[in-house]
Design brief:
- With about 425 residues, the protein is α/β, with parallel strands linked by helices.
- The protein has one domain: TIM Barrel, CATH 3.20.20.
- About 25% of the residues lie in helices and about 20% in strands.
- The protein has 11 helices and 20 strands.
- An 8-stranded parallel β-sheet has the order 8-9-10-11-12-15-16-17, with helices on both faces.
- Helix 7 links the parallel strand 15 and strand 16.
- Helix 1 packs across helix 2, helix 4 packs across helix 6 and helix 9 packs antiparallel against helix 10.
- The chain is globular, with a radius of gyration of 21 Å.
- The two termini are about 35 Å apart.
C-alpha cells in the first residue's frame, strides 16, 4: 500500500531530522521524506497534524511467555500490545520454556511471530546449555538461524571460567553478549538493601550484588575484547563503572528499564507486590544517576523489561510473589515524561527508543531514511489518559502505574509499511 503520513512533526534522531514533513511509504519501505518520489500515487492518507511521526520503537527486553506458554500470555497477544504501544521490534531473551538453546526453538518463535504479524520478534540465544551456567550452548548454530546475540537470560553464569570461555566463543562468531548484572549469591533478596527494605523486614539485595558482577564482567571484556551489553542497570555506581569502561574504549553498552526511571524503594510502601522487580527499586540517588546516565549517553537505550504475569503471581506475601512488571503499554508514555521533566529532550528520548537500541543490536534500523523498512510510530504527544486495567492491551495486568495520569498516545503503528495498529476514538480519561 502507498501511504502518505501528512503534516506531522517528523523526528528521526538517527538522521537529525526534527521538522514538519510528510512521510511517503510504498512497498513496505520509506519512499520519500518531505517530497514524494516520481509517480507516487497515494492510496491512503494518515493525517498526522499535531502529532509526532518517528521510527517504530525497539524494545531490548520483552518476555512474551512462549513457546511453552508457562503463562497464558502469548506471542500473539503481546505483539498486539506492542503494536498498540508503537513498538515494532521486540527482543526476546532466551529464558523461555524451553530455553532458546536450540535452532528449533528459534524457528518456532519466528513462525508464531510471523503468523501474528504485529511486531518483529528477534531472539537472543542462550549463552550456556539450558542457561545452567555449566557448559556452552551451540552459539554458531543459534546465529545461523537468526539469533541477534546470546545472553544469560537473567541467570548469570556463576563460574568465571565458564563465562570467560563463553565470551571467547561468542567473540569468535562476532556475537554480542547480553549479560544480567546480578550476583547469584548476593542477589537472593526481594528489595534494595537499604533503610526502607530493612524497616519492612524484607530480605535485601545490596548494590554490590550488581556492581561486583559488573566489575568482574568488564575485566573479562578488557581481556577478550568481546562486545557486551549490560541489561537493566539499577545503581548509581553501575553507571559509573560502565562510563569508565566506555571511556577506556571497551565495547560495552548498557540500558535501563523504564520503571527504574520513575519508581524508587519508597514505592514499596504497603508491601505493593506490583513493585517487586528484579533488580529491585533502589534509592532516589540511584534513580537520578540512571536518568543522568541516560542523558549523557552512557545508557544507550530504554527498555520495557516486559514480564506479564497472571493475577495470582502477585497475590501473595511480597517475598513470595513473582518479580516483574508488564511494561509494553507504558514504555512510550513513561519515557515521554522524561522530556516533560526536562531530563532529556524529546529527540533524545526517541533516540533511546529507536536508533539507540538498533545500534546496540548492530541493526541498520531505527530510522526513516529512504529505502529503510517502513516501521513507523505516530503518536499524539498532548493526549492525556489515565492508566487503568481497561486500557492495558497486554495479557499481563501487573503494573504499579495503574491510576497514573499519563500523556502521549499512539494513534498509528506501521510494520513494513502495513498498518498494524490504528487507534479508535475512545475516551481514555
Amino acid at each position: 500500500m502507498r501511504i502518505v503520513i501528512r503534516g506531522g512533526r517528523l523526528i528521526d534522531p538517527a538522521r537529525q531530522i526534527d521538522a514538519i514533513l510528510d512521510l511517503f511509504v510504498a512497498e513496505g519501505c520509506i519512499a520519500g521524506v518531505g517530497r514524494p518520489p516520481d509517480g507516487f500515487a497515494v492510496e491512503r492518507i494518515i493525517d498526522a497534524r499535531d502529532r509526532i511521526v518517528c521510527p517504530g520503537l525497539i524494545d531490548l527486553c520483552a518476555r512474551l511467555r512462549e513457546p511453552g506458554q508457562e503463562h497464558k500470555a502469548t506471542i500473539a497477544s503481546e505483539t498486539r500490545a506492542a503494536a498498540a504501544a508503537g513498538i515494532t521490534t521486540l527482543v526476546c531473551p532466551p529464558d523461555t520454556d524451553p530455553v532458546i538453546d536450540e535452532p528449533s526453538v528459534v524457528e518456532l518463535i519466528r513462525r508464531r511471530a510471523e503468523a501474528a504479524g504485529q511486531a518483529r520478534v528477534l531472539t537472543l540465544g542462550a549463552l550456556t546449555h539450558r542457561l545452567r551456567g555449566e557448559r556452552l550452548a551451540e552459539m554458531a548454530a543459534l546465529k545461523d538461524v537468526g539469533c541477534i546475540g546470546v545472553g544469560d537470560g537473567g541467570r548469570p553464569v556463576p563460574n568465571t571460567l565458564v563465562l570467560r570461555r563463553a565470551l571467547e566463543y561468542a567473540a569468535t562468531f562476532d556475537l554480542t553478549v547480553f549479560l544480567t548484572p546480578i550476583d547469584p549469591w548476593l542477589g537472593h533478596g526481594v528489595a534494595h538493601e537499604g533503610q526502607v527494605g530493612t524497616q519492612m523486614g524484607l530480605p535485601g539485595i545490596p548494590a554490590s550484588a550488581e556492581t561486583g558482577i559488573i566489575a568482574r564482567d568488564l575485566e573479562l571484556v578488557r581481556d577478550i575484547g568481546v562486545r557486551v551489553h549490560v541489561g537493566r542497570l539499577s545503581c548509581a555506581r553501575s553507571v559509573e563503572l560502565v562510563a569508565r569502561a566506555q571511556a577506556d574504549g571497551l565495547p560495552v553498552t548498557a540500558d535501563v528499564a523504564v520503571h527504574q526511571l520513575h519508581l524508587t524503594e519508597i514505592d514499596l510502601a504497603g508491601f505493593d507486590s506490583r513493585c517487586h522487580v528484579r533488580p529491585p527499586l533502589r534509592g532516589l540517588r540511584d534513580r537520578d544517576a540512571l536518568r543522568a546516565g541516560l542523558a549523557n549517553g552512557v545508557l544507550g537505550a530504554i527498555c520495557s523489561d516486559h514480564q506479564p504475569h497472571e493475577p495470582d503471581a502477585k497475590q501473595a506475601p511480597f517475598g513470595d510473589t513473582e518479580p516483574g512488571i508488564s511494561g509494553l503499554d507504558t514504555l512510550l508514555a513513561l519515557s515521554l515524561r522524561l522530556a516533560r521533566d526536562e531530563t532529556l529532550t524529546l529527540p533524545m528520548v526517541l533516540e533511546r527508543l529507536t536508533s539507540g537500541p538498533a545500534r546496540i543490536l548492530g541493526l541498520d534500523g531505527g530510522h526513516l531514511g529512504v529505502g529503510a523498512p517502513a516501521d513507523v510510530c505516530v503518536f499524539d504527544p498532548a493526549a492525556d489518559w489515565r492508566m487503568a486495567a481497561g486500557t492495558l492491551r497486554s495479557r499481563g495486568q501487573n503494573t504499579p502505574f495503574l491510576g497514573w495520569e499519563l500523556r502521549g498516545l499512539v494513534t498509528h503503528t506501521l510494520l513494513r509499511g502495513q498498518i498494524v495498529y490504528e487507534r479508535e476514538n475512545v475516551d481514555l480519561s
